[in-house]
UniProtKB/TrEMBL annotation, chains A, B:
Name of this protein: LacI family DNA-binding transcriptional regulator
Pfam families per the UniProt record, alphabetical: LacI (PF00356), Peripla_BP_3 (PF13377)
TM ranges: none
Keywords: DNA-binding, Transcription, Transcription regulation
CDD domains with a match to the protein in the record: HTH_LacI, PBP1_LacI_sugar_binding-like
Length: 341, 341
DNA sequence: GTGAAAGCGCTAACAA
DNA sequence: TTGTTAGCGCTTTCAC
């Protein structure tokens, strides 16, 4: 189907040129923003284009330029968990915002299962994408390497599990953020501090855990418990139960993301522990719900929307660059003081 | 850039044909799945295509077929709220799943602000989209009508605020679901039942409110309070505060979505009301968090992923159809009994 | 069953 | 500054 009432064919550059009384080439120049065009022609073309409400045919353009003018936003996760996390939507929003106005399409894809992974890789290698934003990869996923080998520009959300030559990425200062959370807890006079980690096949979880330990070490203290979660509310609940069972005396918890912190809050309440009086709590993300729970969650904010935008922007500039290792972009975090610590 | 190591040009149909020793036309026929091709040629072509890892150039194909092989998923909402709601991600996932394997791209867009709306409409009218999935529109948005007028197939998520001729949509049985929630509360012996509504410029909120009233009417009862929320946790909190202030004696609440129910749960706890003993609570959505809060939320499940898939499927079939009013698809809801009622 | 040839609408190289 | 020309890679008649 053509998106147009039957009978009226889509206006082409040809028809715009005809109406403006110039050649197709000149019309093309004007629409492409070339400056080497006479004032008269320019105006005539612009008027004609508006008149016909002309829209460039991207297929024809792509064929010539060998660019697709589209960027993929790819979620490398078969599980539901990541999509349920607002983090994902905010990254997407940021990427979209950065691309809006650039005349670049955002193609969305989820890699659920091997079949889809293969289809996607095939598609990407076919030159149908000017770049790929890769999000929520686990472990040592070979996809970035493979795309790079096929000369497809890639930007990763978060550092790769293992360093990959030539791979660009945008990350938050996870270790620094975690450390600042611990320091806050220490400032508040807490002595028995535990942590709930994220899934340890993800670099973000690893870095937050390391930052947590670094913060304690710096004060000559030791963790009073570590329980592994999975970045979900339910995982946070389980981990908190573990922590309490192992050491009923803990007086502070750093959860590696907000969802797990919410789970921990529930469990603490169920065990009759008051937050923050008995147990102080700090999360990570500053997700949209953090301000709405009660008491409101003290957390480490990472600029997720800005990170999404940065990834898209990175991709746009990478297009022009030659070989050489791209510089990772590490965005600062910020402690948001609210009611739980 | 071409997504391919410099020097090695992307294989074309031409090169596949050459390697297979047939004409480009025959190669094309095989790859398009035509049956009028000899067994020998077919095998030769398939082998050659695999050998070269050939990928059809979509731009060239689009140019010929006048189809874009892409569908847009469009969020008509400038506000953050909708994106933070897991509902959105699940719809997206469903739509993506239905399109996977169909060789159709999912183009993602958010209509934040007038500039973006215009750009999008222009783009869509340009015939760059085979169809549009429209999500989270407010009030009497003219966009569906305008797209339809431009002969762009549209499927709406949820019924339109006002009926629009020829507009396809997929909705949940909001009124029925709300009604079943009320009936549960009545079954539990509750007498003083209030509701927290969604934003009343959205049909889903309206229909749930109406279903709530219908359920009460059927038993000859009247609502003990109505407070308007906005589908957010914070809005649910505010509404619950209102409800308690207006009538401290209420013994049940139906919240028009889960996020507001979460807010209500917090406020009830803060006021020393036990859930469900003192006040029973039913939400709507069965969002991923509903099972994780404590007590776990009793709620009305709507099949969101299936709805997203249905919208995409609808779009694919609409392509072929002629004029005539499409039949709306109303998906059933289901009461999920958990701890709050 | 297969091939030759004609474009789809655009951009880019070259002339003028 | 402008126009002419030559394709980009594909699908699709139309012959054979």
């Amino acid at each position: 189907m053509t998106a147009r009432p039957a009978g009226r064919p889509a206006p082409t550059l040809e028809s715009v040129a005809a109406l403006a009384g110039v050649s197709r080439a000149t019309a093309g120049r004007v629409l492409a923003g070339s400056t080497t065009v006479g004032e008269q022609s320019r105006e005539a073309v612009l008027r004609a284009a508006t008149e016909l409400s002309y829209v460039t045919n991207r297929a024809a353009r792509s064929l010539m330029t060998r660019r697709s003018d589209s960027v993929a936003f790819v979620v490398g996760e078969s599980e539901e968990r990541f999509l349920a996390d607002p983090h994902f939507a905010l990254l997407l929003r940021g990427a979209h915002a950065a691309l809006a106005g650039q005349d670049v399409q955002l193609v969305f894809s989820i890699l659920a299962g091997d079949a889809e992974r293969q289809r996607f890789e095939h598609f990407a290698r076919g030159g149908h994408l000017d770049g790929v934003i890769l999000v929520s990869l686990h472990g040592d996923d070979p996809l970035p390497r493979r795309l790079l080998d096929a000369a497809v520009p890639v930007v990763l959300s978060g550092r790769p599990y293992r360093p990959v030559d030539g791979l660009a990425y945008v990350d938050a200062d996870n270790a620094g953020g975690a450390r600042s959370a611990v320091e806050l807890l220490l400032d508040r006079g807490r002595k028995r501090i535990a942590t709930i980690t994220g899934p340890l096949d993800m670099p973000a979880a690893l870095d937050r855990r390391d930052g947590f330990h670094a913060g304690l070490d710096a004060s000559g203290m030791r963790p009073h418990g570590t329980a592994d979660g999975d970045f979900s509310v339910a995982g946070g609940r389980r981990a908190m139960e573990e922590l309490i069972a192992a050491d009923p005396g803990i007086d502070a918890v750093f959860a590696a993301n907000d969802l797990m912190a919410f789970g921990a809050m529930q469990v603490l309440a169920e065990h009759g522990r008051r937050v923050p009086d008995d147990v102080a709590l700090v999360g990570f993300d500053d997700s949209p719900l953090a301000a709405s729970v009660h008491p409101a969650l003290t957390t480490v904010r990472q600029p997720v929307v800005a990170m999404g935008a940065a990834m898209a922007a990175r991709l746009m500039t990478v297009f022009g660059e030659g070989p050489g290792d791209p510089v990772p972009l590490i965005m600062p975090t910020e402690l948001v003081l609210r009611g739980t610590a």
